[in-house]
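Q: I'm building a small set of examples for a reading group on sequence design. Run inverse folding on the following structure and report the sequence directly after it, with nothing in between.
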């Protein structure tokens, strides 16, 4: 009989080593793959489909008596969603993907983490010129098949202007680009675009990829008339999330990349589900 050096037969069934018994009696809460980049198709709020590249992490819980999990099945799952005829992803379909992962891996609990760039077409406030602006989106689904917890996160770049600088200066005021990060748990799936609008509406001004001079004037004056500390930013967006009927828990963060300091100003408000 032909054999490999290990003694396993070349012809015949291959041994399932990862499915063998482990006697160390140590369960593993998360085992899987991370840092995996794969193409995806995301369903936008207007019903369109946008291609992107996602970075994925997929994990399952491993019982104490099982030696290993089936790593190839995680990549097989990503292969399925990358096919041209596969449904486009949104929060609801990622929850369904989590349920399918648990079935394929024969696991009771697991977690899917995915992040990608979402491009939104924006119209400049005066000239009407259009351009794309990118936002970072992250979806995490964790738990068992019967009650998975889905968390949606967006990072929205905005403009902020310092109220103190405006008050004490004879002219002008320092302003900077800021990032508002919103993470929410909701009663029903929410589109990333809805969170983006909350962040932009509560900033000193939203920003755009392409502007004409008339637009620059408008945004500069808009921010000057609407100054906000980092504390104002985080409180204003947190207030919107607190009052949103679909939101059951959230984390709101604001970071100002200060124009007169070599550090950022930062604030965070949390509200646990329930």
């Amino acid at each position: 009989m032909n054999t490999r050096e290990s003694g396993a037969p070349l012809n015949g069934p291959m041994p399932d080593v990862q499915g063998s018994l482990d006697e160390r009696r140590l369960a593993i809460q998360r085992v899987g793959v991370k840092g995996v980049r794969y193409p995806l198709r995301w369903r936008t709020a207007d019903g369109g489909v946008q291609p992107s590249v996602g970075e994925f992490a997929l994990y399952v819980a491993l019982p104490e008596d099982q030696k290993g999990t089936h790593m190839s099945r995680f990549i097989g799952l990503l292969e399925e969603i990358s096919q041209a005829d596969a449904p486009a992803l949104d929060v609801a379909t990622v929850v369904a993907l989590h349920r399918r992962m648990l079935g394929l891996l024969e696991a009771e609990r697991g977690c899917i983490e995915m992040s990608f760039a979402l491009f939104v077409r924006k119209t400049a406030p005066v000239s009407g010129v259009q351009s794309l602006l990118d936002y970072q989106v992250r979806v995490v689904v964790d738990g068992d098949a019967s009650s998975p917890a889905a968390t949606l996160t967006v990072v929205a770049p905005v403009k902020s202007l310092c109220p103190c600088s405006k008050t004490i200066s004879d002219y002008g005021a320092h302003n900077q680009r800021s990032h508002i990060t919103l993470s929410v748990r909701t009663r029903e799936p929410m589109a990333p675009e809805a969170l983006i609008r909350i962040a932009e509406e509560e900033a000193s001004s939203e920003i755009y990829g392409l502007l004409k001079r008339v637009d620059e004037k408008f945004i500069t004056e808009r921010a000057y008339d609407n100054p906000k500390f980092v504390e104002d930013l985080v409180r204003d967006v947190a207030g919107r999330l607190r009052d949103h009927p679909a939101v059951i828990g959230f984390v709101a963060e604001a970071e100002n990349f200060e124009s007169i300091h070599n550090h950022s100003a930062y604030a965070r408000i949390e509200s646990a589900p329930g």
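The chain has one domain: 28-271.
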